[in-house]
Design brief:
The complex is a heterodimer of chains A (112) and B (115). Chain A has 112 residues and is an all-beta fold. Chain A has no helices and eleven strands. Classes of the chains: A mainly beta (112), B mainly beta (115).
């Protein structure tokens, strides 16, 4: 069955370190998204991609970057982790013909 | 400003009882509205989608309603079960086909079903 996976599921890092969160989907969807979810804020869009070599900034993109070298993967990089980036991160994908997004299981990131 | 407001923030009910969750939105132009269920420690999963012309849609014990004139939606859960304990998120799309910048997320209602 097609799925979307994230790794690691939990990560603890220190302020200033570079961190990369992986997202892999086997739906063959062109569209992929990264969100963060914090108490009191709901899901907020960080970056998204409509296809290979395409990346776009969302509403909370500062301090994050993504790259899209193939259809299946959209890794999220925190260039220099900050305590404000402690959050739960969700990756999602969708086909071009629907706006239903399929979400991964999430990565809980703690920045100390 | 495009906004989605959900109420209540949290709700506790006894197993077997019914409940209704509310979603009010100011998103324009409206394309469709989805309700997602998010279990603890998991990603959200779509329950229903409603377009402008639809008033009611059911998915098992879940029934969603939409009033596009008043820009309100509700999610009614019948005969609640312990497995219904989750957060329920209302998501409104500004135009068909989605697109990352076309979605506005509510903050969710946290529902707890007590035995």
């Amino acid at each position: 069955d097609a799925e979307i996976t994230q790794s690691p599921r939990h990560k603890i890092t220190e302020t200033g370190r570079q961190v990369t969160l992986a997202c892999h989907q086997t739906w063959n969807h062109n569209n992929m998204f990264w969100y963060r979810q914090d108490l009191g804020h709901g899901l907020r869009l960080i970056h998204y991609s409509y296809g290979v070599q395409d990346t776009n900034k969302g509403e909370v993109s500062d301090g994050y970057s993504v790259s899209r070298s193939n259809t299946e993967d959209l890794p999220l990089t925190l260039e220099s982790a900050a305590s404000s980036q402690t959050s739960v991160y969700f990756c999602a994908s969708r086909s071009g013909s629907s706006n239903e997004q399929f979400f991964g299981p999430g990565t809980r990131l703690t920045v100390l | 400003k495009n906004q989605v407001e959900q109420s209540p923030q949290s709700l506790i009910i006894l197993e077997g009882k019914n409940c209704t969750l509310q979603c009010n939105y100011t998103v324009s132009p409206f394309s469709n509205l989805r309700w997602y269920k998010q279990d603890t420690g998991r990603g959200p999963v779509s329950l229903t989608i409603m377009t402008f012309s639809e008033n009611t849609k059911s998915n098992g014990r879940y029934t969603a309603t939409l009033d596009a004139d008043t820009k309100q939606s509700s999610l009614h859960i019948t005969a609640s079960q312990l497995s219904d304990s989750a957060s329920y998120i209302c998501v409104v799309s500004r135009y068909s086909g989605g697109g990352a910048d076309g979605l506005t997320f509510g903050k969710g209602t946290h529902l707890i079903i007590q035995p």
